[in-house]
C-alpha cells in the first residue's frame, strides 16, 4: 500500500493521533539570539554573522539547533502521536524573507523533514507505523484581502508568487522524507489553492500520489475564516485536490471548534481532522487549559463521531497529546460519508445548483458580449460602476455571475478581469456568489481563476480545437479548483440538430469522465439559438435543446445542464412582456427536462404561472414547435 492507502486503512480501525504545538515548546526554552544563530549546541555557528536578527525564526532551528527539534519530535512520539509535523510552518520564501532567508526555503524544509523522518522511523513498528507531515503555513500575506485602501483591487501578494514559494517549500519537505504535506492554519482559501496548485505540479513531475492534509482556522463564531468564507464553502473550494483530510486547527479552543467541525464532518468525503488550541491565550500569551480539561472537551468529538485524526495546536504539549490519545483509544473513528454526487460551487458561501426547484440564475450582464454598457465601464476603467452591475444582478436574483472580457478583442482583458475580480472580492454581496469565467483566450481565464478563492465555473470549453486541447483546458480548470462548462461544439462546428447535440454531449462527457474529471463538476450547455433565426433547425432550437437535455439527464449522471436563455430573444423585436414570457416559458419546459443553470438577466423573467394565458400559449406553440404560425403570431403581438 502507498501512504494514502496505509493511513486510510488505519483510520478505519482507530482515530489517528497528530502531535501538538511545536512553537509553544520552543518558546518554553527561552532561547537567545545566539541559539537561533547556531552558536550554542550543534549548530556550528553557521549564522553567527547573519545581518538580520533571527530570534523567533523557529524553522532555522532545524539547522542551528537540530537536537532541540529532534527532542520535541521524540517527546510527541513517546506521547502516542501517529503523525508528527515538521518544524517548517514558516519555511516558504515569502515568510523567510522577513529574516533575510528567502533563498533557504528548500534547505530548511528538507532539514525539517529529515529530522522528523529520523525520529518517526526510530519509533515505527509494524503494529504502529509513524508518519511525517510536512507543515506548510499560510504566510502572513493574503491574496484575497486588499491592504491598499487607495486601490482595493491591489494585493500585497498574488497567486504566482505564492505557488512558486509553496512549490520550493513542498519540494524540500518531500526530499527530506515527509509522507504527507499539511497545509495548515488557512485563513485565505486563495492562498491554499495556490499551494495546492503547486503540489499538483509536484505530483505530475514525480508521478506520485502525494497525500495532502488541509486545515483551516476559524475566525468567528459564524464559522468563517478570516477572508470571509464560510467553512462549507471552503471545503467545496479545496475538494478538487483529493485531500487525505480536511479539518480545522488553532481557532478558539476545543469547545467552540465543535460546531464548525460538525459542518465539515458531515460534508467532506475524506478523513476529518481537528487540532484545536489549549483554550484561549491569557494576558501573557500563554495557554492555561490542562491536558485533562482539553481531553474532556475533545472527548465530545469522539462521542459524536466527528473526527478521524485528532491533535493539538497552540499551547498543547506532549502531556495534552498523551491524555487525548487515551480518550481516543476508547472510541471508534468517524464514518466517512460517500463522495458528493451533487455539484458544489462557492464564493464566500456554498451553492448547490442541483438543490433548487427551479434553475439557478446566472447573471450575464458582466459579460462584454452583447452588454455594451458593462464593456464601456471596463474599457474606461470605471470599475465601481461595473461592480454595481454585478450587485444589481444579485439583488434581482442571480446566484452566479458570468464574467467575460475578451470576446470583443479587448487588448487589456487580462489585467481588466483581474482588477475587476479583485475589487469584486471586497464587496461581500458579490464575493458571496460563485463566478463563471468565460472567453476565448484561456490565458485570460487563468488570470481570473488566480483571483478567486471559491469554486468557480470555467465556461465555453468545447471540442472545436480537438480532443487534446479540450482535455488540456479541462485538466487545468480542475487544477484551479473549477467546474467545467462544456458547450456542444466540435471541429465540425456548433451542434444544432438533436442528433448532433447528443453525439457531441456523449463524446465530451466520456472524454472527461475517462480522464477522471468528476461528473458532478461537468456542466453541459446544449446550445440554444435565437427564436428569430431564419433556418428551420434554428427555429426549432428551443425544442432541440429540451430534447438534448432530457437525454443528458438520463445518460450523463451527475452532470448539470446549462442554458443561455437570453439568446432566445436576441434580435427579436419584442416588448418586455413578450421577452419575459419567452424566458419564463422556456425555463419551465427546459427545467422539467433537466435544466439546472440559466444565463439570463434576472429582471427579464416572469414566473410561468403569471404569464397571460394567451401569450403563454403562443410562446409555447413556438418553443415546442406545436404550430407553424407561432412565430408570425408572436411577431404580430410585438
SSE inventory with pairings:
Layout: H1 3-13, E1 16-17, H2 23-27, H3 33-36, H4 61-64, H5 66-79, E2 83-85, H6 93-96, H7 105-123, E3 131-136, H8 159-175, E4 180-186, H9 189-206, E5 212-216, H10 231-238, E6 245-250, H11 254-267, E7 271-276, H12 291-303, E8 309-310, H13 318-328, E9 345-346, E10 350-351, E11 360-363, H14 372-379, H15 383-395, E12 400-403, H16 413-424, H17 428-431, E13 435-437, H18 442-449, E14 457-461, H19 467-479, E15 483-487, E16 489-490, E17 493-494, H20 498-514, E18 522-525, H21 536-539, H22 541-555, E19 560-563, H23 576-593, E20 595-599, H24 613-623, H25 630-637
Parallel strand pairs: 1-8, 2-3, 3-4, 4-5, 5-6, 6-7, 7-8, 11-12, 11-20, 12-13, 13-14, 14-15, 15-18, 18-19, 19-20
Antiparallel strand pairs: 9-10, 16-17
Helix pairs in contact: 5-7, 5-13, 7-8, 8-9, 12-13, 14-15, 15-16, 16-18, 20-22, 22-23, 23-24, 24-25
In brief, what are we looking at here?
The chain is an alpha/beta fold and 638 residues long.
CATH superfamily of the largest domain: Dihydropteroate synthase-like
Tally of separate domains: 2
In the CATH scheme, what's the topology name of the largest domain? TIM Barrel
Strand content: 5-15%
The quaternary organization reads as single chain
> What composes the largest sheet?
8 strands, parallel
Low-confidence stretches: none
- Overall strand count: 20
Query: Radius of gyration, rounded?
Result: 27 Å
| Total of DSSP H or I helical runs spanning 4+ residues | 25
Level of helix content?
40-55%
- Mean pLDDT across the residues is 93
Amino acid at each position: 500500500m502507498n501512504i494514502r492507502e496505509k493511513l486510510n486503512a488505519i483510520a478505519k480501525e482507530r482515530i489517528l493521533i497528530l502531535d501538538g504545538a511545536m512553537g509553544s515548546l520552543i518558546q518554553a526554552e527561552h532561547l537567545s539570539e545566539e541559539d537561533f544563530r547556531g552558536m550554542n549546541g550543534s549548530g556550528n555557528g553557521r549564522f553567527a554573522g547573519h545581518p538580520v536578527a533571527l530570534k523567533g525564526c523557529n524553522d532555522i532551528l532545524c539547522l542551528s539547533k537540530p537536537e532541540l527539534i529532534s527532542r520535541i519530535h521524540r517527546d510527541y512520539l513517546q506521547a502516542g502521536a501517529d503523525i508528527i509535523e515538521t518544524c517548517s510552518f514558516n519555511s516558504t520564501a515569502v515568510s523567510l524573507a522577513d529574516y533575510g532567508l528567502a533563498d533557504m526555503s528548500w534547505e530548511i524544509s528538507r532539514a525539517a523533514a529529515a529530522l522528523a523522518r529520523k525520529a518517526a522511523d526510530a519509533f515505527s513498528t509494524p503494529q504502529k507505523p509513524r508518519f511525517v507531515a510536512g507543515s506548510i503555513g499560510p504566510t502572513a500575506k493574503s491574496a484575497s484581502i486588499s491592504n491598499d485602501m487607495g486601490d482595493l483591487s491591489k494585493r500585497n501578494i498574488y497567486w504566482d508568487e505564492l505557488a512558486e514559494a509553496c512549490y520550493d517549500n513542498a519540494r524540500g519537505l518531500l526530499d527530506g522524507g515527509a509522507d504527507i504535506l499539511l497545509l495548515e492554519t488557512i485563513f485565505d482559501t486563495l492562498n491554499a489553492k495556490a499551494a495546492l496548485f503547486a503540489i499538483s505540479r509536484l505530483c505530475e513531475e514525480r508521478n506520485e500520489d502525494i497525500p495532502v492534509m488541509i486545515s483551516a482556522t476559524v475566525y468567528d463564531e459564524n464559522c468563517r475564516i478570516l477572508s470571509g468564507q464560510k467553512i462549507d464553502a471552503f471545503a467545496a473550494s479545496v475538494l478538487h485536490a483529493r485531500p487525505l483530510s480536511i479539518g480545522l486547527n488553532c481557532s478558539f479552543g476545543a469547545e467552540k471548534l465543535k460546531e464548525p467541525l460538525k459542518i465539515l464532518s458531515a460534508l467532506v468525503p475524506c478523513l476529518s481532522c481537528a487540532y484545536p488550541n489549549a483554550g484561549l491565550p491569557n494576558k501573557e500569551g500563554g495557554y492555561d487549559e490542562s491536558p485533562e480539561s482539553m481531553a474532556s472537551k475533545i472527548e465530545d468529538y469522539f462521542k459524536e463521531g466527528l473526527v478521524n485524526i485528532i491533535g493539538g495546536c497552540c499551547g498543547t504539549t506532549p502531556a495534552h497529546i498523551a491524555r487525548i490519545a487515551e480518550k481516543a483509544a476508547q472510541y471508534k473513528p468517524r464514518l466517512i460519508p460517500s463522495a458528493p454526487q451533487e455539484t458544489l460551487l462557492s464564493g464566500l458561501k456554498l451553492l448547490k445548483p442541483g438543490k433548487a426547484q427551479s434553475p439557478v440564475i446566472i447573471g450575464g450582464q458582466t459579460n462584454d458580449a452583447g452588454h455594451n454598457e458593462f464593456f464601456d465601464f471596463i474599457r474606461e476603467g470605471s470599475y465601481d460602476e461595473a461592480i454595481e452591475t454585478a450587485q444589481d444582478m444579485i439583488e434581482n436574483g442571480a446566484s452566479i455571475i458570468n464574467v467575460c472580457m475578451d470576446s470583443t478583442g479587448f487588448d487589456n482583458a487580462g489585467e481588466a478581469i483581474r482588477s475587476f475580480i479583485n475589487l469584486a472580492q471586497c464587496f461581500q454581496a458579490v464575493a458571496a456568489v460563485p463566478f463563471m469565467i468565460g472567453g476565448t483566450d484561456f490565458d485570460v481565464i487563468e488570470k481570473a481563476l488566480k483571483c478567486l478563492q471559491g469554486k468557480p465555473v470555467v465556461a465555453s470549453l468545447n471540442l472545436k480545437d480537438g480532443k487534446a486541447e479540450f482535455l488540456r483546458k479541462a485538466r487545468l480548470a480542475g487544477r484551479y479548483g473549477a467546474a467545467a462548462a462544456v458547450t456542444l461544439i466540435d471541429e465540425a462546428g456548433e451542434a444544432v440538430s438533436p442528433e448532433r447535440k447528443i453525439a457531441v454531449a456523449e463524446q465530451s462527457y466520456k472524454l472527461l469522465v475517462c480522464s477522471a474529471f468528476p461528473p458532478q463538476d461537468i456542466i453541459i450547455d446544449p446550445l440554444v439559438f435565437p427564436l428569430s433565426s431564419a433556418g428551420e433547425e434554428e427555429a426549432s432550437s428551443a425544442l432541440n435543446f429540451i430534447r438534448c437535455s432530457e437525454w443528458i439527464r438520463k445518460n450523463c449522471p451527475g452532470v448539470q445542464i446549462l442554458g443561455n436563455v437570453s439568446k432566445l430573444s436576441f434580435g427579436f423585436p419584442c416588448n418586455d412582456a413578450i421577452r419575459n414570457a419567452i424566458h419564463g416559458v422556456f425555463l419551465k419546459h427546459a427545467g422539467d427536462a433537466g435544466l439546472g443553470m440559466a444565463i439570463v438577466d434576472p429582471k427579464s423573467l416572469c414566473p410561468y404561472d403569471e404569464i397571460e394565458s394567451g401569450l403563454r400559449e403562443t410562446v409555447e406553440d413556438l418553443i415546442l414547435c406545436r404550430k407553424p404560425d407561432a412565430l408570425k403570431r408572436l411577431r404580430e403581438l410585438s
